[in-house]
Amino acid sequence: MPKKILIPDTSVIIDGRIGPLIDKYTDVRVSIHEAVVAELEAQANAGRDSGFKGLEELELLQKYASEGKIELDFIGERPTEAELKDIDDIIRSSSKKTGTHLVTSDKIQARIAQAKGISVIYLEKKKLEREPKIYDYFTDDTMSIHLRDRNLPKAKKGRPGDAKLVELSKTPMKERELKKLASEILEFSRSDPDSFIEIERRGATVVQMRELRISITYPPFSDAFEITAVRPVADMNLDDYKLSEKLLKRLKEKAEGILVAGPPGAGKSTFSGALAEFYKNQEKIVKTMESPRDLMISDEITQYGPLEGDMEKTADILLLVRPDYTIYDEVRKTKDFLIFADMRLAGVGMVGVVHAAKGIDAIQRLVGRVELGMIPQIVDTVVFIKDGEIKKVYTLKFTVKVPAGMMEADLARPVIEIKDFESGSVEFEIYTFGDETIVMPALDEGGSAIDNIAAQTIAGEIKKITRGGYVEVKVRGSKATVLVDEHQIPKIIGRHGENIEKIERRTGFKINIRSFDETSFEKPKEEFEALVREEQRFVVLKVAKELSGETIEAYAEDTYLFTATVGKNGEMKIGAKTKIGAGVVDAFVAGKKITIRKVP
Fold it and tell me: Which is more confidently placed, 322 or 454?
Protein backbone atom coordinates (compact mmCIF):
# COMPACT_ATOMS: atom_id res chain seq x y z
CA MET A 1 0.00 0.00 0.00
CA PRO A 2 1.55 3.38 -1.00
CA LYS A 3 2.51 5.90 1.65
CA LYS A 4 -0.21 8.40 2.57
CA ILE A 5 1.19 11.92 2.08
CA LEU A 6 -0.70 14.75 3.83
CA ILE A 7 -0.25 18.50 3.39
CA PRO A 8 -2.16 20.28 6.20
CA ASP A 9 -3.12 23.94 5.92
CA THR A 10 -3.05 26.48 8.75
CA SER A 11 -6.67 25.92 9.82
CA VAL A 12 -6.26 22.23 10.63
CA ILE A 13 -2.94 22.80 12.41
CA ILE A 14 -4.48 25.47 14.66
CA ASP A 15 -7.48 23.24 15.39
CA GLY A 16 -5.14 20.45 16.51
CA ARG A 17 -6.83 17.99 14.15
CA ILE A 18 -3.89 16.58 12.23
CA GLY A 19 -2.58 14.57 15.21
CA PRO A 20 -5.71 12.39 15.68
CA LEU A 21 -6.02 11.96 11.87
CA ILE A 22 -2.67 10.24 11.42
CA ASP A 23 -3.70 7.50 13.89
CA LYS A 24 -5.92 6.17 11.08
CA TYR A 25 -2.95 5.34 8.86
CA THR A 26 -0.04 2.91 9.29
CA ASP A 27 2.30 4.56 6.80
CA VAL A 28 2.02 8.34 6.57
CA ARG A 29 4.17 11.34 5.77
CA VAL A 30 3.14 14.83 6.85
CA SER A 31 4.57 17.62 4.72
CA ILE A 32 4.40 21.06 6.30
CA HIS A 33 4.69 23.92 3.85
CA GLU A 34 6.97 26.77 4.97
CA ALA A 35 4.04 29.14 4.33
CA VAL A 36 2.19 27.48 7.23
CA VAL A 37 5.19 27.94 9.52
CA ALA A 38 5.52 31.59 8.49
CA GLU A 39 1.83 32.27 9.15
CA LEU A 40 1.91 30.62 12.60
CA GLU A 41 5.08 32.53 13.48
CA ALA A 42 3.46 35.82 12.44
CA GLN A 43 0.40 35.08 14.57
CA ALA A 44 2.52 34.09 17.58
CA ASN A 45 4.66 37.23 17.24
CA ALA A 46 1.44 39.23 17.29
CA GLY A 47 0.56 37.54 20.58
CA ARG A 48 -2.40 35.63 19.12
CA ASP A 49 -3.41 32.43 20.87
CA SER A 50 -4.04 30.76 17.49
CA GLY A 51 -0.36 31.13 16.61
CA PHE A 52 0.78 29.48 19.84
CA LYS A 53 -1.79 26.68 19.43
CA GLY A 54 -0.45 25.97 15.95
CA LEU A 55 3.17 25.91 17.11
CA GLU A 56 2.21 23.43 19.85
CA GLU A 57 0.70 21.18 17.16
CA LEU A 58 3.92 21.33 15.13
CA GLU A 59 5.89 20.33 18.24
CA LEU A 60 3.51 17.37 18.70
CA LEU A 61 4.08 16.25 15.08
CA GLN A 62 7.84 16.49 15.63
CA LYS A 63 7.41 14.26 18.69
CA TYR A 64 5.47 11.71 16.59
CA ALA A 65 8.26 11.76 14.02
CA SER A 66 10.95 11.15 16.65
CA GLU A 67 8.91 8.17 17.93
CA GLY A 68 8.70 6.72 14.41
CA LYS A 69 4.93 7.12 14.10
CA ILE A 70 5.15 9.36 11.02
CA GLU A 71 7.58 10.85 8.58
CA LEU A 72 7.75 14.63 8.82
CA ASP A 73 9.28 17.09 6.39
CA PHE A 74 9.06 20.77 5.55
CA ILE A 75 8.55 21.74 1.93
CA GLY A 76 8.43 24.84 -0.25
CA GLU A 77 10.02 28.22 0.22
CA ARG A 78 9.23 30.72 2.92
CA PRO A 79 6.88 33.32 1.43
CA THR A 80 7.31 37.06 1.70
CA GLU A 81 4.96 39.08 3.91
CA ALA A 82 2.97 40.11 0.82
CA GLU A 83 2.71 36.49 -0.38
CA LEU A 84 1.27 35.41 3.00
CA LYS A 85 -2.02 37.02 1.94
CA ASP A 86 -2.34 34.16 -0.59
CA ILE A 87 -1.32 31.37 1.79
CA ASP A 88 -4.33 29.14 0.95
CA ASP A 89 -3.52 29.31 -2.76
CA ILE A 90 0.17 28.53 -2.06
CA ILE A 91 -0.78 25.35 -0.19
CA ARG A 92 -3.35 24.29 -2.82
CA SER A 93 -0.80 24.74 -5.59
CA SER A 94 1.79 22.72 -3.69
CA SER A 95 -0.71 19.88 -3.07
CA LYS A 96 -1.77 19.75 -6.73
CA LYS A 97 1.82 19.83 -7.97
CA THR A 98 2.91 16.93 -5.73
CA GLY A 99 -0.34 14.94 -6.03
CA THR A 100 -0.71 14.76 -2.25
CA HIS A 101 -3.78 15.02 0.00
CA LEU A 102 -4.69 18.51 1.21
CA VAL A 103 -6.01 18.44 4.79
CA THR A 104 -8.17 21.36 5.92
CA SER A 105 -10.98 22.34 8.28
CA ASP A 106 -11.83 25.41 6.18
CA LYS A 107 -14.99 24.81 4.11
CA ILE A 108 -14.10 27.37 1.45
CA GLN A 109 -10.57 26.00 1.11
CA ALA A 110 -11.97 22.47 0.72
CA ARG A 111 -14.52 23.46 -1.97
CA ILE A 112 -12.00 25.43 -4.02
CA ALA A 113 -9.50 22.55 -3.83
CA GLN A 114 -12.14 20.05 -4.96
CA ALA A 115 -13.12 22.34 -7.84
CA LYS A 116 -9.47 22.31 -8.96
CA GLY A 117 -9.29 18.52 -8.81
CA ILE A 118 -7.13 18.36 -5.70
CA SER A 119 -7.53 15.40 -3.32
CA VAL A 120 -9.00 16.86 -0.12
CA ILE A 121 -9.52 15.51 3.40
CA TYR A 122 -12.01 17.87 5.03
CA LEU A 123 -12.20 17.76 8.83
CA GLU A 124 -15.11 19.63 10.38
CA LYS A 125 -14.18 21.87 13.25
CA LYS A 126 -14.37 19.78 16.40
CA LYS A 127 -17.07 20.56 18.89
CA LEU A 128 -16.70 20.28 22.63
CA GLU A 129 -18.85 17.60 24.19
CA ARG A 130 -19.88 20.04 26.90
CA GLU A 131 -19.96 23.77 27.45
CA PRO A 132 -16.70 25.26 28.77
CA LYS A 133 -16.20 24.96 32.50
CA ILE A 134 -16.47 28.74 32.89
CA TYR A 135 -20.26 28.27 32.91
CA ASP A 136 -19.98 26.22 36.12
CA TYR A 137 -18.99 29.37 38.02
CA PHE A 138 -22.21 31.18 37.13
CA THR A 139 -25.47 31.17 39.07
CA ASP A 140 -28.66 33.08 38.26
CA ASP A 141 -27.52 36.18 40.17
CA THR A 142 -23.88 36.22 38.98
CA MET A 143 -22.85 39.37 37.14
CA SER A 144 -19.19 38.54 36.57
CA ILE A 145 -16.45 36.00 37.33
CA HIS A 146 -12.88 37.02 38.22
CA LEU A 147 -10.17 34.34 37.99
CA ARG A 148 -6.49 35.16 38.50
CA ASP A 149 -3.35 33.10 38.96
CA ARG A 150 -2.49 32.48 42.66
CA ASN A 151 -5.73 34.15 43.78
CA LEU A 152 -9.05 32.82 45.04
CA PRO A 153 -11.76 32.70 42.36
CA LYS A 154 -14.34 35.43 42.94
CA ALA A 155 -17.72 36.44 41.58
CA LYS A 156 -19.72 39.63 41.66
CA LYS A 157 -23.31 38.74 42.52
CA GLY A 158 -26.47 40.82 42.60
CA ARG A 159 -27.63 43.62 40.34
CA PRO A 160 -26.18 47.01 39.34
CA GLY A 161 -26.18 49.18 42.47
CA ASP A 162 -26.65 46.19 44.76
CA ALA A 163 -23.78 43.79 44.12
CA LYS A 164 -21.16 42.16 46.31
CA LEU A 165 -17.91 40.32 45.64
CA VAL A 166 -17.87 36.75 47.00
CA GLU A 167 -15.22 34.02 47.09
CA LEU A 168 -16.12 30.88 45.17
CA SER A 169 -13.46 28.63 46.66
CA LYS A 170 -10.80 28.56 49.36
CA THR A 171 -8.26 27.17 46.89
CA PRO A 172 -6.29 29.67 44.79
CA MET A 173 -6.36 29.29 41.02
CA LYS A 174 -3.27 27.96 39.25
CA GLU A 175 -1.95 29.08 35.89
CA ARG A 176 -2.34 25.65 34.31
CA GLU A 177 -6.03 25.62 35.31
CA LEU A 178 -6.53 29.03 33.75
CA LYS A 179 -4.73 28.02 30.55
CA LYS A 180 -6.88 24.91 30.23
CA LEU A 181 -10.00 27.00 30.82
CA ALA A 182 -8.86 29.57 28.24
CA SER A 183 -8.18 26.80 25.71
CA GLU A 184 -11.72 25.45 26.20
CA ILE A 185 -13.19 28.92 25.69
CA LEU A 186 -11.25 29.54 22.49
CA GLU A 187 -12.01 26.12 21.01
CA PHE A 188 -15.70 26.52 21.79
CA SER A 189 -15.82 30.03 20.32
CA ARG A 190 -14.33 28.77 17.03
CA SER A 191 -16.94 26.05 16.59
CA ASP A 192 -20.07 27.57 18.14
CA PRO A 193 -22.12 29.67 15.64
CA ASP A 194 -23.17 32.10 18.39
CA SER A 195 -19.62 32.73 19.63
CA PHE A 196 -16.59 34.45 18.16
CA ILE A 197 -13.18 35.90 18.99
CA GLU A 198 -13.66 39.68 19.02
CA ILE A 199 -10.10 40.89 19.75
CA GLU A 200 -6.80 39.03 19.65
CA ARG A 201 -3.68 40.94 20.61
CA ARG A 202 -0.31 40.25 22.17
CA GLY A 203 -1.17 39.33 25.76
CA ALA A 204 -4.95 39.78 25.48
CA THR A 205 -7.91 38.03 23.84
CA VAL A 206 -11.56 39.10 24.05
CA VAL A 207 -14.22 36.49 23.29
CA GLN A 208 -17.97 36.90 22.95
CA MET A 209 -19.17 33.43 23.93
CA ARG A 210 -22.93 33.52 23.56
CA GLU A 211 -24.07 35.89 26.33
CA LEU A 212 -20.66 36.02 28.06
CA ARG A 213 -18.02 38.63 27.30
CA ILE A 214 -14.71 37.05 28.31
CA SER A 215 -11.37 38.82 28.59
CA ILE A 216 -8.26 36.63 28.77
CA THR A 217 -5.03 38.43 29.65
CA TYR A 218 -1.52 37.20 30.31
CA PRO A 219 2.08 38.51 30.36
CA PRO A 220 3.48 40.70 28.92
CA PHE A 221 0.20 42.65 28.88
CA SER A 222 -0.83 41.74 32.44
CA ASP A 223 1.41 40.70 35.30
CA ALA A 224 -0.38 37.36 35.70
CA PHE A 225 -2.74 35.07 33.79
CA GLU A 226 -6.31 36.28 34.32
CA ILE A 227 -9.80 35.49 33.01
CA THR A 228 -12.75 37.85 33.51
CA ALA A 229 -16.21 36.84 32.30
CA VAL A 230 -19.11 39.32 32.36
CA ARG A 231 -22.77 38.48 31.82
CA PRO A 232 -25.78 40.79 31.73
CA VAL A 233 -28.08 39.77 34.58
CA ALA A 234 -30.96 42.06 33.70
CA ASP A 235 -32.97 41.50 30.52
CA MET A 236 -35.12 44.61 30.69
CA ASN A 237 -37.47 46.45 28.39
CA LEU A 238 -38.27 50.14 28.49
CA ASP A 239 -41.43 49.56 30.59
CA ASP A 240 -39.23 48.31 33.45
CA TYR A 241 -37.69 51.78 33.81
CA LYS A 242 -41.06 53.38 34.63
CA LEU A 243 -40.47 56.33 32.31
CA SER A 244 -42.76 59.32 32.53
CA GLU A 245 -45.19 59.83 29.65
CA LYS A 246 -43.31 63.02 28.84
CA LEU A 247 -39.96 61.22 28.49
CA LEU A 248 -41.49 58.30 26.60
CA LYS A 249 -43.01 60.72 24.12
CA ARG A 250 -39.65 62.48 23.63
CA LEU A 251 -37.82 59.20 23.00
CA LYS A 252 -40.54 58.16 20.57
CA GLU A 253 -41.03 61.40 18.63
CA LYS A 254 -38.19 63.88 19.12
CA ALA A 255 -34.95 62.46 20.54
CA GLU A 256 -32.61 61.43 17.71
CA GLY A 257 -29.20 62.22 19.17
CA ILE A 258 -29.05 60.43 22.53
CA LEU A 259 -26.13 59.86 24.88
CA VAL A 260 -26.65 57.13 27.46
CA ALA A 261 -24.12 58.02 30.14
CA GLY A 262 -23.00 56.56 33.45
CA PRO A 263 -20.08 54.99 35.31
CA PRO A 264 -18.84 51.46 34.43
CA GLY A 265 -21.30 48.73 35.41
CA ALA A 266 -24.17 51.18 35.93
CA GLY A 267 -26.48 49.51 33.40
CA LYS A 268 -25.88 51.72 30.35
CA SER A 269 -25.72 48.84 27.87
CA THR A 270 -28.81 47.21 29.39
CA PHE A 271 -30.79 50.42 28.92
CA SER A 272 -29.41 50.87 25.40
CA GLY A 273 -30.49 47.34 24.54
CA ALA A 274 -33.97 48.09 25.86
CA LEU A 275 -34.03 51.28 23.80
CA ALA A 276 -33.03 49.31 20.68
CA GLU A 277 -35.93 46.90 21.25
CA PHE A 278 -38.27 49.86 21.82
CA TYR A 279 -37.37 51.39 18.46
CA LYS A 280 -37.61 48.01 16.75
CA ASN A 281 -41.14 47.59 18.12
CA GLN A 282 -41.94 51.05 16.70
CA GLU A 283 -41.22 49.49 13.28
CA LYS A 284 -37.89 51.28 12.97
CA ILE A 285 -34.82 49.76 11.31
CA VAL A 286 -32.25 49.41 14.10
CA LYS A 287 -28.57 48.42 13.84
CA THR A 288 -25.70 48.49 16.32
CA MET A 289 -22.01 49.37 16.21
CA GLU A 290 -20.16 47.48 18.96
CA SER A 291 -16.70 46.34 19.92
CA PRO A 292 -17.11 43.82 21.41
CA ARG A 293 -20.62 42.89 20.22
CA ASP A 294 -22.18 42.14 23.59
CA LEU A 295 -25.58 43.89 23.62
CA MET A 296 -28.32 41.40 24.47
CA ILE A 297 -30.87 42.13 21.75
CA SER A 298 -33.19 40.16 19.47
CA ASP A 299 -32.02 38.50 16.25
CA GLU A 300 -33.92 41.04 14.15
CA ILE A 301 -31.34 43.69 15.04
CA THR A 302 -28.03 43.29 13.19
CA GLN A 303 -24.93 43.86 15.32
CA TYR A 304 -21.92 45.26 13.46
CA GLY A 305 -18.33 45.25 14.67
CA PRO A 306 -15.38 47.31 13.35
CA LEU A 307 -15.03 46.52 9.62
CA GLU A 308 -11.40 45.58 9.03
CA GLY A 309 -10.75 46.88 12.55
CA ASP A 310 -12.14 50.35 11.79
CA MET A 311 -15.52 51.71 12.97
CA GLU A 312 -15.30 54.45 10.34
CA LYS A 313 -15.60 51.78 7.65
CA THR A 314 -18.56 50.29 9.54
CA ALA A 315 -20.21 53.72 9.49
CA ASP A 316 -19.70 53.90 5.71
CA ILE A 317 -21.64 50.64 5.29
CA LEU A 318 -24.37 51.75 7.69
CA LEU A 319 -24.94 54.96 5.75
CA LEU A 320 -25.68 52.78 2.74
CA VAL A 321 -27.97 50.51 4.80
CA ARG A 322 -29.86 53.61 6.04
CA PRO A 323 -31.09 52.52 9.48
CA ASP A 324 -33.53 54.69 11.40
CA TYR A 325 -31.49 54.26 14.60
CA THR A 326 -27.99 53.04 15.37
CA ILE A 327 -26.77 52.06 18.84
CA TYR A 328 -23.05 52.95 19.17
CA ASP A 329 -21.56 50.99 22.10
CA GLU A 330 -19.32 52.62 23.14
CA VAL A 331 -18.33 56.20 22.26
CA ARG A 332 -15.01 56.80 23.98
CA LYS A 333 -12.17 58.10 21.82
CA THR A 334 -12.13 61.27 19.73
CA LYS A 335 -12.61 59.21 16.56
CA ASP A 336 -15.74 57.60 18.05
CA PHE A 337 -17.26 61.02 18.80
CA LEU A 338 -16.49 62.21 15.27
CA ILE A 339 -18.08 59.09 13.74
CA PHE A 340 -21.13 59.53 16.00
CA ALA A 341 -21.38 63.20 14.95
CA ASP A 342 -20.96 62.42 11.26
CA MET A 343 -23.72 59.80 11.28
CA ARG A 344 -26.07 62.02 13.26
CA LEU A 345 -25.52 64.96 10.91
CA ALA A 346 -26.20 62.58 8.01
CA GLY A 347 -29.69 62.07 9.44
CA VAL A 348 -29.33 58.75 11.27
CA GLY A 349 -30.90 58.54 14.73
CA MET A 350 -28.00 57.80 17.10
CA VAL A 351 -27.77 56.35 20.60
CA GLY A 352 -24.23 56.53 22.01
CA VAL A 353 -23.06 54.76 25.17
CA VAL A 354 -20.58 56.96 27.08
CA HIS A 355 -18.65 56.48 30.33
CA ALA A 356 -19.29 59.50 32.57
CA ALA A 357 -19.40 60.20 36.30
CA LYS A 358 -22.16 62.83 35.82
CA GLY A 359 -24.61 63.63 33.07
CA ILE A 360 -22.91 66.93 32.22
CA ASP A 361 -19.58 65.09 31.81
CA ALA A 362 -20.96 63.25 28.79
CA ILE A 363 -21.66 66.57 27.06
CA GLN A 364 -18.29 68.01 28.07
CA ARG A 365 -16.59 65.15 26.24
CA LEU A 366 -17.90 66.63 23.01
CA VAL A 367 -16.41 70.07 23.78
CA GLY A 368 -13.26 70.59 21.76
CA ARG A 369 -14.01 67.58 19.56
CA VAL A 370 -16.76 69.17 17.50
CA GLU A 371 -17.69 72.79 16.86
CA LEU A 372 -19.54 74.21 19.85
CA GLY A 373 -22.55 75.37 17.86
CA MET A 374 -23.00 71.88 16.38
CA ILE A 375 -23.36 70.09 19.73
CA PRO A 376 -27.17 70.52 20.06
CA GLN A 377 -27.58 69.22 16.48
CA ILE A 378 -25.55 66.14 17.35
CA VAL A 379 -26.93 65.49 20.85
CA ASP A 380 -30.40 66.55 21.91
CA THR A 381 -30.91 64.24 24.93
CA VAL A 382 -28.65 62.84 27.65
CA VAL A 383 -29.88 59.95 29.82
CA PHE A 384 -27.72 59.43 32.91
CA ILE A 385 -27.86 55.91 34.37
CA LYS A 386 -26.60 54.87 37.79
CA ASP A 387 -27.27 51.68 39.78
CA GLY A 388 -29.45 50.47 36.92
CA GLU A 389 -31.84 53.44 37.18
CA ILE A 390 -32.34 56.68 35.28
CA LYS A 391 -31.09 59.41 37.60
CA LYS A 392 -31.15 62.44 35.32
CA VAL A 393 -32.26 63.42 31.82
CA TYR A 394 -30.89 66.52 30.11
CA THR A 395 -31.98 68.27 26.92
CA LEU A 396 -29.88 70.73 24.94
CA LYS A 397 -30.96 73.99 23.30
CA PHE A 398 -28.97 76.51 21.28
CA THR A 399 -29.74 80.21 21.84
CA VAL A 400 -28.17 83.69 21.83
CA LYS A 401 -28.31 85.42 25.20
CA VAL A 402 -26.33 86.98 28.01
CA PRO A 403 -24.90 84.07 30.04
CA ALA A 404 -26.08 83.70 33.63
CA GLY A 405 -24.10 85.98 35.94
CA MET A 406 -23.45 88.61 33.27
CA MET A 407 -25.63 91.69 33.20
CA GLU A 408 -24.91 93.77 30.09
CA ALA A 409 -26.59 93.27 26.72
CA ASP A 410 -23.29 93.74 24.85
CA LEU A 411 -22.12 90.45 26.43
CA ALA A 412 -24.79 88.45 24.56
CA ARG A 413 -23.30 85.48 22.73
CA PRO A 414 -24.24 81.98 21.46
CA VAL A 415 -25.06 79.79 24.47
CA ILE A 416 -25.98 76.11 24.78
CA GLU A 417 -28.51 75.64 27.56
CA ILE A 418 -28.48 72.30 29.37
CA LYS A 419 -31.94 71.78 30.87
CA ASP A 420 -33.30 69.25 33.34
CA PHE A 421 -35.87 67.52 31.14
CA GLU A 422 -38.60 67.00 33.72
CA SER A 423 -38.50 70.47 35.34
CA GLY A 424 -37.36 72.47 32.31
CA SER A 425 -34.93 74.49 34.46
CA VAL A 426 -31.53 75.45 33.04
CA GLU A 427 -28.78 73.73 35.05
CA PHE A 428 -25.70 74.45 32.92
CA GLU A 429 -24.62 76.77 30.13
CA ILE A 430 -21.84 76.29 27.61
CA TYR A 431 -20.34 79.28 25.77
CA THR A 432 -17.05 80.81 24.72
CA PHE A 433 -15.33 83.47 26.80
CA GLY A 434 -12.22 84.91 25.24
CA ASP A 435 -10.33 81.90 23.92
CA GLU A 436 -11.87 79.51 26.46
CA THR A 437 -14.96 77.30 26.30
CA ILE A 438 -16.83 77.58 29.59
CA VAL A 439 -19.19 74.96 31.05
CA MET A 440 -20.85 76.91 33.85
CA PRO A 441 -23.58 75.99 36.35
CA ALA A 442 -26.45 78.41 35.80
CA LEU A 443 -26.76 80.94 38.62
CA ASP A 444 -30.05 82.41 39.79
CA GLU A 445 -28.46 85.47 41.40
CA GLY A 446 -25.14 87.23 41.40
CA GLY A 447 -22.20 86.41 39.23
CA SER A 448 -19.27 85.56 41.50
CA ALA A 449 -18.34 82.40 39.62
CA ILE A 450 -18.38 84.04 36.20
CA ASP A 451 -16.63 87.11 37.60
CA ASN A 452 -13.75 84.92 38.77
CA ILE A 453 -13.43 83.27 35.36
CA ALA A 454 -13.62 86.67 33.64
CA ALA A 455 -10.93 88.07 35.94
CA GLN A 456 -8.63 85.11 35.23
CA THR A 457 -9.17 85.45 31.48
CA ILE A 458 -8.47 89.19 31.46
CA ALA A 459 -5.41 88.74 33.69
CA GLY A 460 -4.07 86.13 31.26
CA GLU A 461 -4.45 88.55 28.35
CA ILE A 462 -2.69 91.32 30.26
CA LYS A 463 0.19 89.04 31.30
CA LYS A 464 0.89 88.20 27.67
CA ILE A 465 1.94 91.86 27.34
CA THR A 466 3.57 92.38 30.76
CA ARG A 467 5.45 89.05 30.49
CA GLY A 468 3.79 87.76 33.63
CA GLY A 469 4.12 90.77 35.92
CA TYR A 470 1.74 90.94 38.89
CA VAL A 471 -1.83 91.80 37.80
CA GLU A 472 -4.97 92.26 39.87
CA VAL A 473 -8.36 92.28 38.10
CA LYS A 474 -11.73 93.24 39.55
CA VAL A 475 -14.89 92.60 37.49
CA ARG A 476 -18.28 94.24 37.89
CA GLY A 477 -20.91 93.57 35.28
CA SER A 478 -19.38 94.31 31.88
CA LYS A 479 -16.55 96.44 33.29
CA ALA A 480 -13.17 95.43 34.64
CA THR A 481 -10.54 97.34 36.56
CA VAL A 482 -6.97 96.13 36.01
CA LEU A 483 -4.26 97.07 38.53
CA VAL A 484 -0.63 96.83 37.43
CA ASP A 485 2.71 98.48 38.11
CA GLU A 486 2.69 102.01 36.68
CA HIS A 487 5.56 101.39 34.25
CA GLN A 488 3.53 98.58 32.60
CA ILE A 489 0.55 100.80 31.69
CA PRO A 490 1.91 102.22 28.39
CA LYS A 491 2.72 98.72 27.09
CA ILE A 492 -0.76 97.43 28.00
CA ILE A 493 -2.56 100.36 26.32
CA GLY A 494 -0.35 100.24 23.24
CA ARG A 495 0.08 102.74 20.44
CA HIS A 496 -3.16 104.69 20.03
CA GLY A 497 -4.78 102.21 22.43
CA GLU A 498 -4.57 99.28 19.99
CA ASN A 499 -3.52 96.67 22.60
CA ILE A 500 -6.27 97.39 25.09
CA GLU A 501 -8.88 97.58 22.31
CA LYS A 502 -7.93 94.07 21.13
CA ILE A 503 -8.27 92.71 24.67
CA GLU A 504 -11.67 94.39 25.08
CA ARG A 505 -12.89 92.88 21.81
CA ARG A 506 -11.67 89.39 22.74
CA THR A 507 -13.15 89.40 26.27
CA GLY A 508 -16.24 91.59 25.78
CA PHE A 509 -15.36 93.80 28.78
CA LYS A 510 -14.69 97.51 29.05
CA ILE A 511 -11.31 97.68 30.77
CA ASN A 512 -9.92 100.48 32.96
CA ILE A 513 -6.14 100.32 33.55
CA ARG A 514 -4.84 101.78 36.82
CA SER A 515 -1.62 101.55 38.79
CA PHE A 516 -1.34 100.20 42.30
CA ASP A 517 -0.18 103.63 43.46
CA GLU A 518 -3.51 105.24 42.42
CA THR A 519 -5.57 102.93 44.60
CA SER A 520 -5.86 101.85 48.17
CA PHE A 521 -5.13 98.32 46.97
CA GLU A 522 -1.71 97.17 48.04
CA LYS A 523 0.19 94.71 45.93
CA PRO A 524 1.41 91.80 48.07
CA LYS A 525 4.78 92.74 49.48
CA GLU A 526 5.71 89.40 51.03
CA GLU A 527 8.84 88.27 49.25
CA PHE A 528 11.17 85.33 49.67
CA GLU A 529 14.78 85.29 48.65
CA ALA A 530 15.81 82.45 46.36
CA LEU A 531 19.20 80.76 46.45
CA VAL A 532 20.64 80.23 42.98
CA ARG A 533 23.02 77.48 41.91
CA GLU A 534 24.21 76.38 38.50
CA GLU A 535 24.31 72.75 37.44
CA GLN A 536 25.57 71.24 34.18
CA ARG A 537 22.35 71.75 32.23
CA PHE A 538 20.14 73.65 34.67
CA VAL A 539 19.84 76.75 36.79
CA VAL A 540 18.25 75.81 40.13
CA LEU A 541 16.32 78.22 42.37
CA LYS A 542 15.95 76.98 45.95
CA VAL A 543 13.26 78.36 48.29
CA ALA A 544 11.60 77.24 51.54
CA LYS A 545 9.98 73.77 51.36
CA GLU A 546 6.69 75.15 52.69
CA LEU A 547 6.29 76.92 49.34
CA SER A 548 6.20 73.57 47.49
CA GLY A 549 3.23 73.46 45.13
CA GLU A 550 2.70 77.23 45.24
CA THR A 551 2.54 79.31 42.05
CA ILE A 552 5.15 82.08 42.26
CA GLU A 553 6.59 84.96 40.28
CA ALA A 554 10.36 85.42 40.26
CA TYR A 555 12.02 88.83 40.13
CA ALA A 556 15.57 90.16 39.84
CA GLU A 557 15.06 93.07 42.23
CA ASP A 558 12.07 94.80 40.50
CA THR A 559 12.50 93.15 37.08
CA TYR A 560 10.06 90.30 36.37
CA LEU A 561 11.71 87.03 35.32
CA PHE A 562 9.10 84.24 35.11
CA THR A 563 6.08 82.55 36.68
CA ALA A 564 6.29 78.90 37.82
CA THR A 565 5.15 76.30 40.35
CA VAL A 566 7.58 75.36 43.14
CA GLY A 567 8.60 71.68 43.15
CA LYS A 568 8.31 69.16 45.98
CA ASN A 569 11.66 70.01 47.55
CA GLY A 570 11.25 73.76 47.26
CA GLU A 571 13.24 73.81 44.02
CA MET A 572 12.66 75.04 40.47
CA LYS A 573 14.86 73.82 37.64
CA ILE A 574 15.25 75.92 34.51
CA GLY A 575 17.16 74.90 31.39
CA ALA A 576 20.46 76.80 31.42
CA LYS A 577 20.30 77.41 27.65
CA THR A 578 16.75 78.76 27.66
CA LYS A 579 15.98 82.47 27.47
CA ILE A 580 14.60 82.45 31.04
CA GLY A 581 17.57 80.48 32.37
CA ALA A 582 20.04 82.90 30.74
CA GLY A 583 18.13 85.85 32.27
CA VAL A 584 18.37 84.33 35.75
CA VAL A 585 22.11 83.68 35.33
CA ASP A 586 22.79 87.20 34.02
CA ALA A 587 20.93 88.75 36.95
CA PHE A 588 22.71 86.49 39.45
CA VAL A 589 26.15 87.26 37.97
CA ALA A 590 25.33 91.00 38.07
CA GLY A 591 24.78 90.64 41.83
CA LYS A 592 21.04 91.27 41.72
CA LYS A 593 18.91 89.78 44.48
CA ILE A 594 16.57 87.05 43.18
CA THR A 595 13.21 87.09 44.98
CA ILE A 596 9.90 85.34 44.57
CA ARG A 597 6.32 86.37 45.36
CA LYS A 598 3.36 84.07 45.80
CA VAL A 599 0.62 84.51 43.22
CA PRO A 600 -2.71 84.81 45.10
Answer: 322
